[in-house]
Amino acid sequence: MVCRRLLVTNNPQLCPVVRSCVFVEGTTLDVLLRVRDHVHLGWRLLTHPLYGNLRPHQHLYRSILLERQEGSVDLESLDYMESALRIYTAESRRIMSADGIPEEHREDFAFVDYELIKESLLQYGMVTADGALPSGGRR
Amino acid sequence: MPISLKGGKERTMKLELHRVKISKLAWGDATSAKDGVLTVNKEELLSVLAGDERLTKVDVDFAQPGESVRILPVKDVVEPRFKLEGAGGVFPGMLSDVETVGEGKTLVLSGAAVVTTGKIVRFQEGIIDMSGPGAEYTPYSATCNVVVILENAKGIDKHEYETACRMAGLKAAAYLAEKCAGAKVDAVETYESLSLKDMPAPPTLPKVAYLYMLQSQGLLHDTYLYGVDVKKILPTYLNPTEVMDGAIVSGNCVSACDKNNTYVHQNNPVIANMFKRHGVDFNFIGCIVTNENVTLLDKRRSSSYAVKLARTLGVDGLLISEEGFGNPDADLIMNCWKAERAGIKTTLLTDEYAGQDGASQSLADSCVEGDACVTAGNANEVIVLPPMDKVIGEPEEANVIAGGWQGSLAADGTITVELQAILGSTSELGYTKLGAYTI
Amino acid sequence: MVKEIERAGLPVVHVCTIVPISLTVGANRIIPAVAIPHPLGDPSKTAEEEKQIRRRLVERSLKALQTEITDQTVFND
Amino acid sequence: MSYRIVHYINQFYAGIGGEEKADIRPEIREGVVGPGMALKGALGSEATVVATVICGDSYFASNMEQASAEILEMMKQYKPDAVVAGPAFNAGRYGTACGAICEAVMKNLGIPAVSGMYPENPGVEMYKKSFYIVETPDSAVGMRKAIPAMAKLVLKLLKGETLGTPAEEGYIERGIRKNKFYDKLAAERAVDMFVAKLQGKPFVTEYPMPVFDRVPPNPAVKDMKNATIALVTSGGICPKGNPDHIEASSASKFGEYDITDVKDLTCDDFCTAHGGYDATYADQDADRVLPVDVLRDMEKEGVFKKLYNKFYSTVGNGTAVASAKKFGAEIARKLIADGVTAVILTST
Fold first, then answer.
1. pLDDT band at residue D320, thresholds of 50, 70 and 90?
2. Other C-beta atoms within 10 Å of C16: how many?
3. Interchain CB distance below 8 Å, C70 and D217
4. Residue B1 pLDDT > 50
5. Are A2 and A29 in contact (CB under 8 A)?
6. For an interface test with B, which of D182, D209, D214 has the most B Cβ atoms less than 10 Å from its Cβ?
7. For burial by CB atoms within 10 Å, which of A137, B203, B370, D61 has the most?
8. How many CB pairs lie under 8 A apart between chains C and D?
9. What ipTM goes with this model?
10. Per-residue 3-state assignment (H helix, E strand, C coil) for chain A
11. Which chain A residues touch D if contact means CB-CB below 8 Å?
12. pLDDT band at B7 (very low <50, low <70, confident <90, very high)
């Protein structure tokens, strides 16, 4: 089956509950690069790559929703990806990695990331029927 | 100073703000305002806030201008207001019924503020310093702050906790103002939101509106309009006086520097300055409220819809204010070029994330049409905040808030952070005098 | 880069996938290419077919260089 | 006490010689040399030029890292409080050397550095973000204006005074955003600007958004049969192993690669340095980005006379407009010198 929509994320909490997900082992920049490559191959952004109000070095996770489209490269998507990458590469030395970050903080980051993408996942029917979304915040 | 706008009578919405000036806080037996002093009955205030099972602990404290006090992490700031006359109550859809507000008389404890503190999402709250170099950057170092300290019950959802904190701030603010209802009023300001039919200003003046962008990325990055999550609205029309009665309430846990706290919504300086020029330089016909959602579909829909509203209202110009950084820049830019291409002149109000050295690109998006842009400064500039005698809240949060980093908090209490961590420092409603220029 | 070479006095033809970007950076003679990862090729085709595609794009480029223009021009065929 | 300043100049201004002496190695002399005399006068009693470093432009350009290190060591012995370099006016290599020295001084010695250049000097685009460069006319005729402005700026920096805007202080805009408190709230400033725009009156935006200029098209190639065609790419194609270490994004350099006798860019010899797209297809066959194979065929068929024997390559992704401009200008200079007729530039 060819999936029409796809979530690209490095947030480990998300993949288990989402239909068609590409899990990226790496940083937020790796997620952006993966999405950019998808855009080159004809995928279109459904969500903005810079959701949240944080600089590249201020968060651990990034999740972006894509849709397969007909025809050539979607310029708007490419434009947003290039702009986002400019912001990221300008601060590439400061991009956050999970190493050395306490579990509790990582959970906070994962939670916020999930919060921000949740509405869009529901809107585009990306949540698996049996996969109740993680409750978040419960400790 | 009363600001009055002449106009037709029947259809106008007239709101009088009755200002009681507060310059000092004191504990006492009865909550009241007199001679610039707001006296607070601590037990009574705590009892108003009690009974929410989502909160295990609620406490209150004071932080006054000039004191060696630091508050962090701050969630929201609310100005105490109470409806003396007219339909509805303050914070409609939140604390009061959903009746339309913006008419009658509203009591304002000018100079006082309720500040809520408590850990919600660890890295997304802000700092208020009441003195020292940090105080210059936050408008809330100049207010007499009643600080509400909140602790969540174990196992509670973050949204539930956010709601509880938000409601506690609103309740405290409404309570304080209500108790001062009989106090001597220092000044009365009158604002009139006019119906289009009665627009009195010379027809030769251009017609303008204010495009009011609200953060709406997700449950903890949200804003409420009459209690409605603005993520779910289509852009809509709002009378400026409704905002003054608390029609817009912040539910934000985003970067401290440019989240628009409920306080700045209540005191929106763009609206205040638009009123000042109304009838002289232009005809101010009101606000168009729009959102900043995560999906591109929503962005396209909202920007097109907002511009369509502006066209229908026949405006010649739109002043557009943003909230936040990153994807909201995309909304700002879409709003800008769609309006300009529809023949509507725009001016943008934003802030910048140009990196600690100021050398990075300030906005995540741009368009040639954005030729008139005012900025509230670069949020990434680094500032050193010397230790304070007293810290309300949790000082170690400095290491995890946005704008801080592991090691931001030194052993002696000094905090080195980006301005991003200081509440309201680069307010995109333009509530500070900060700006930036190119060297 | 395109613009500076043109400014120095050499005619340049810009073969690129994203025409609007080319227009934005100020190229004058523009040939739309196949796709970003392979502007002058198509891995889904055979090697011969692919070279044919490339040949056509280069021929079009040379033709563009021999065409007088006064403004930014996209050569579509 | 007066501040100690070390001055940097090239072989020409030291009176050693022109291009034929451009390869002399750095040396340091006590006191002033050449334009240092005027600098001394402009600094007055507040600062003294304690020593002058002289280096040949070519030597510096071809041994940048080593020359910088050597020069820093020389300077250190004189315990400078600040360094002044140039003015370099519109001399490209001199400007680049002044820029590199000043940047190294700021970074490694932690003291202020000032230079002076004509705005189109390539040294400006390369180094303006690192330190202050005073705007000068394009030739040494402007020396009398340049030196006092540079002296004034370096004294201000030494005294830790707050600098005004580029226009007020006479330096070239560095493109760095700095905060300041205005007299009015941002909201009031916005409404002021809004009214000015509505009324068609002049106003100055506080944040100029990036804009792009245009160049008129060059005349068409009349005689293709006798033309030399050159290939340039922003797709990062380079010999396998990326010998020049062109960065995957935000490239700071471009590569020049010989393709004499190369008929086809095979995966054994060529790849891409570009990090801005999925590199799989370009790595498999670099002709997909840079059509050498087809151009060789056409050269043989006599469609045009010659494929230029080198190609130039950089990575367009994330590369600053200023760098891209500089690359373009340098590449064009080489191509024109070698008699190239026209250019095919490919981008991904």
1. low
2. 26
3. yes
4. no
5. no
6. D209
7. B370
8. 181
9. 0.85
10. CCCCEEEEECCCCCHHHECCEEECCCCHHHHHHHHHHHHHCCEEECECCCCCCCCHHHCCCCEEEEEECCCCCCHHHHHHHHHHHHHHHHCHHHCCCCCCCCHHHHHHHHHHHHHHHHHHHHHCCCECCCCCCCCCCCC
11. 33, 36-37, 40-41, 82, 85-86, 89-90
12. very low
Task: Lowest mean pLDDT of A69-73, D230-234, D274-278, D341-345, name the range.
Answer: A69-73
Q: Per-residue pLDDT tens for B91-103? A: 999 999 999 999 9
B438 and D183: CB-CB below 8 Å?
A: no
Round to whole Å and give the CA distance between B71 and B393: 6
Q: Answer yes or no: do B269 and D185 touch at CB < 8 A.
A: yes
The domains of chain A are located at 5-123
Is B315 within a domain?
yes
Asked if D343 and C5 come within 8 Å (Cβ–Cβ), the reply is yes
Residue A101: its pLDDT value, please? 80
* Residue A138 pLDDT exceeds 80: no
Q: Is the pLDDT of residue C50 over 60?
A: yes
More confident residue, C63 or A42: C63
Q: Which residues of B are catalytic?
A: 253
B79 has a chain A CB within 8 A of its CB? no
Q: Specify whether the CB–CB gap between B92 and B99 falls below 8 A.
A: yes
Q: Which CATH number fits domain D3-169: 3.50.50.60, 3.40.50.2300, 3.30.420.40, 3.40.50.620?
A: 3.40.50.2300
Query: Does residue B434 sit within a domain?
Result: no
Q: Domain boundaries in chain D?
A: 3-169, 224-346
Range of the domain at B17: 13-193+203-421
For residues B106-132, give the mean pLDDT.
90
Per-residue pLDDT at A136: 40
Q: Which residues in chain A touch residue D277, judged by CB atoms under 8 angstroms apart?
A: 36-37, 40
